Amino acid sequence: MASSSTIEKPSAQGSAKRKFDRMNRLRDLELKMNEARKLNHQEVVAEDERKKRPKNFEAKKMRTEWEEEVERKKKECEERGEVFDRVKLLDVGADEAERWERKKKKKNPDTGFADYEQATFRQYQTLTKQMKPNMQEVDRQKEKLGDDFYATSNTLGLHQQKDTKEAVDRMVVDLEKQIEKRSKYSRRRTFDEDADIDYINERNMKFNKKLERFYGSYTAEIKQNLERGTAV
To answer: Are 148 and 160 in contact (CB under 8 A)?
Structure first.
């Protein structure tokens, strides 16, 4: 009887140890599953954020960073009393400069008027290139709003974001510049209410203007005599 009890005791200890090992492995698996679930959720959120971004987000971000770097170098050159354009050329090789020159000659920035859609797109590109966003303010808004920072089909934009007074002032100044520019290039002729009415319709008005433009200097005296009633 004593010998049998001594044989059962080690077997019980081995069973408890195996059970303890299985519990440890199970706990490790649960920890790994939770970690994988957390990483998967982070990746899903990041992918959803990337999908909400515009198609040219990365390109615009790289361009903005490049513009900030250029502005920083300009300030450094001004502090040292150097000309930025000359300093910039020191880092440009002959092959690269020749390639830029060929690209500049090949590129035609003004292709003329094609249709209103293309004209609107060109104006949009011009206006967005002039914008210089404050990336620190963008990062602050991104942290504050979270997922609401990127607009979706359900975003109204009324309460999520509020423009600052400086941003509104910049928009007003930009709109005033656009209005002033359009007024200079407008082909609409202003109507002179004090001008003499010597026409019977619009077609006759244009014809009389052509006559005045070509023969007005020769017929000015005859016209004045007819108006005074002293014509012979």
So the answer is: yes
